[in-house]
Structure formats: C-alpha cells, structure tokens
C-alpha cells in the first residue's frame, strides 16, 4: 500500500447520553457526521478519512453514501474503546493498529461534534503543523470579561472596573473548540496523547465555539449552518475559497511574452521572482499548483523544478483535457481549479475552471471570459496577484476582489 501522509480519524460511537443517536441527527439539513466527513474530504492535506464506530447504523450510512466509496474507510473498533469511560486517545491508538491505517505518518483527530469545521481549517491547521510544531490544536478567541474568586471568596476581575473597556477591545483568550488536533503517528504512539511537544494553536472562526453535546447545541449549530449555507451560493466572488489546484500558462503569464535567443540558438525567458513567491505561498497553504503550456523546452522544466509545482504539462494541445486529467488524478472537480491564461488557446479551460484569471495585458479573447483581470501584466507579478487574491478569499480575510471582471454573471 502506498505511503499516506495525513489521515483524519473521526470517532463516532453508538452510545450518547446527552443526545441519543446524535451523529446521524440532521443539523443544517444533513446528518451531523456528514459535515466533518465532507470537510475532511475537501481538504487538500488529507489523504485518508477513517471513521471509527461501533454503530451499525453509522456503518450503513457511510457505506450507503456513494460519493464516499473508497474515500472513507471503516476500521473495526474494539469494544473497550466505545464505553462511556473510554478516552479518545484509546480510539486513536486502536485505529493506528488497524490495516486501514497502514502507511499513515500524521494523524488528525476530528470531532463529529464540531460540524462548523471547514476544509480550509484543516488545511490551515496542517500548514501550521508543518511549519515546525510537534502538534496543533484548534482554538477560538473569546472576548469576555472574566472574574475569579480568591481564597476568601472575594471577586477580582481581569480588568479595571473603574475603567471598563469595550468588549471588542479586549485581547481575548483562546479556548479549545475540540474541532481538530494534529500530531505525528510516532508522537501519538510514544506519548499516548493527541498533543505533545511544541504545540501550535490554530485559530478558527468565533462561531465554531459551539460543540454539539446537549440538545440546545443542536439548535444553535443548526441555525449557524443554515445561515452559512444560505450565504455560500457559488459565484465568482467566493470562488477563491473553493480552490484546491491553481494552474498557470507560461508565455504571457509567467513571462512578458518576450523571447531571448542566445548565441547558440537556445531560447531563454525571463521570469518574476514575485510569481515564484506566489507558488510558494499556495504550496504552504496546502493548495496544489501546476503549469500547462503548449511550449516545450529545458528552461520551462527548470523553472517548474524551481517552483516545485505538483504538475507540469508541456506541449499541450488541449489544456482543458489536460486539466481534467489532473483533476482525475487528484479526485478534484474543475470547480476546484483556478487557471490563469492570456490568449485564445487558454479560453476553453478558463471557461470551465471554477475561477479564471488573466494578466492586465491579456488578449481580448481571454479577457472576455476571465473572472479576475489582474492589475499586473504578464511576467511582472500577475500570477502573484492572482495567488494573493485566492489566499485572501480562502482564509476569509476578504471576498475575492474582481477589479475588472468581464464575465457576465
């Protein structure tokens, strides 16, 4: 079996005293479990999803969801890990001993009781983990006025009551929301703990504070999920948040379309270091990158190697077909692809990609179908601008800005 980097483990047992059968209770219009499974499947960093359960109904639900076939696995669960007093760590250790966990080197514990988790949260937490931490957990920031009682029962506050600040001006404190924990398999097996060593804190949206443990939590989370769904009608302005693969043309996008011929007849091109940083930032965010070009040559290969792209297609005669093949390789849809091109041979893919872009000096045919027309020209930071806009939309910093969109809504 091929080595797997990151596996998401979702423990869901049959017994639940607070809310009987809660993992299949409908919330936000779908079963509770589905929200976290879909978030895990949508994350670029996740290679495998393992649902650990002793509930026959949950097993039937997983097996009966066609879109999950081959993507969500069901390791057997030892009875001792499904009792009221069993620890979550015992479940993780049990799963790591199963055949379904063969080759796993990194483990992400995801709680089904945190349906407000997004794929982007998993990718962001994993990127933080990979930045040098031994483990990472998700938190939310709460800006509340805190009080405490001393040994004499006297109340003291963490602020000056005589100069009460505004709540929004408080620095706030970070609280675990129970959504995701990431560590290495080695650390888990060695320490028996979901977090250890140098711990990183990944801050999620404040609304993700609520976990589904009591009936009242279902009401709160149901309203939040329905509000989220109502505000997420797909469109160009939020397409960046769905991107999992960014593809680029070369001539006219990564270059200024100029060509230099050396004395020996070898062709050379000039590339922008800023664009190179754009590829790096996308990679660090867990987004795959690739180059599709009709051109061929060692200088293109050298640039692709320098950029550490996930895919390079040279000599392309049908960029849409080549992009579709990449999607099949990584189980993506074209809606999850962003492509930046500049000329007529890019138009077919630009029309089908979830998000399309072009440099400021693109040809009219490409500009007419682009969702995002960059302010920068080809070879002078257009790709970096496109990448920055995608990352901003993905992180929720802002909606994708469409400065000169020509596509009809």
TrEMBL record:
Pathway: Amino-sugar metabolism; N-acetylneuraminate metabolism
Top-level enzyme category: transferase
The protein's required cofactors: Mg(2+)
EC number: 2.7.7.43
Keyword Metal-binding: yes
Keyword field: Hydrolase, Magnesium, Metal-binding, Nucleotidyltransferase, Transferase
InterPro entries named among the record's database cross-references: CMP-NeuNAc_synthase (IPR050793), Cytidylyl_trans (IPR003329), HAD-like_sf (IPR036412), HAD_sf (IPR023214), KdsC_fam (IPR010023), Nucleotide-diphossugar_trans (IPR029044)
Protein family (similarity comment): Belongs to the KdsC family.
Oligomeric form and interacting partners: Homotetramer.
Protein name: N-acylneuraminate cytidylyltransferase
Organism: Pseudonocardia bannensis
């Amino acid at each position: 079996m091929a080595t797997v980097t990151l596996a998401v483990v979702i423990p869901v047992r049959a017994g639940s005293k607070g809310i009987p059968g809660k993992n299949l209770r409908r919330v936000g219009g779908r079963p509770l479990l589905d929200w976290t499974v879909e978030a895990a499947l949508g994350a670029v960093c996740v290679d495998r999803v393992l649902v650990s359960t002793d509930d026959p109904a949950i097993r039937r639900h997983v097996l009966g969801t066609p879109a999950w076939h081959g993507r969500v696995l069901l390791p057997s669960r030892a009875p001792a890990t499904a009792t009221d007093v069993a620890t979550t760590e015992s479940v993780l250790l049990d799963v790591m001993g199963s055949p379904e966990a063969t080759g796993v080197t990194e483990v992400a514990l995801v709680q089904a009781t945190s349906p407000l988790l997004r794929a982007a949260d998993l990718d962001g937490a994993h990127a933080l983990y990979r930045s040098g931490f031994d483990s990472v957990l998700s938190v939310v920031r709460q800006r509340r006025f805190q009080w405490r009682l001393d040994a004499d029962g006297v109340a003291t506050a963490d602020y000056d009551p005589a100069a009460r600040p505004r709540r929004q001006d408080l620095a706030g404190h970070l609280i675990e929301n129970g959504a995701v924990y990431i560590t290495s398999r080695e650390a888990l097996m060695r320490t028996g703990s979901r977090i250890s060593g140098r711990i990183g804190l990944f801050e999620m949206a404040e609304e993700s504070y609520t976990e589904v443990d009591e009936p009242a939590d279902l009401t709160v989370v149901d309203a939040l999920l329905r509000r989220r769904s109502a505000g997420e009608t797909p469109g160009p302005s939020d397409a960046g948040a769905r991107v999992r693969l960014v593809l680029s043309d070369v001539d006219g996008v990564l270059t200024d379309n100029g060509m230099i011929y050396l004395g020996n007849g070898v062709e050379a091109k000039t590339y922008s270091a800023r664009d190179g940083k754009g590829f790096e930032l996308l990679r660090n965010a867990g987004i795959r990158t690739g180059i599709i070009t009709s051109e061929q040559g060692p200088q293109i290969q050298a640039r692709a190697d320098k950029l550490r792209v996930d895919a390079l297609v040279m000599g392309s005669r049908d960029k849409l077909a080549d992009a579709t093949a990449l999607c099949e390789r990584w189980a993506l849809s074209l809606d999850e692809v962003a492509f930046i091109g500049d000329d007529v041979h890019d138009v077919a893919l630009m029309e089908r990609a979830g998000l399309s872009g072009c440099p400021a000096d693109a040809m009219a045919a490409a500009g007419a179908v682009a969702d995002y027309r960059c302010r920068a020209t080809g070879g002078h930071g257009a790709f970096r601008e496109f990448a920055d806009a995608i990352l901003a939309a993905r992180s929720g910093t802002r909606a994708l800005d469409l400065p000169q969109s020509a596509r009809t809504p």
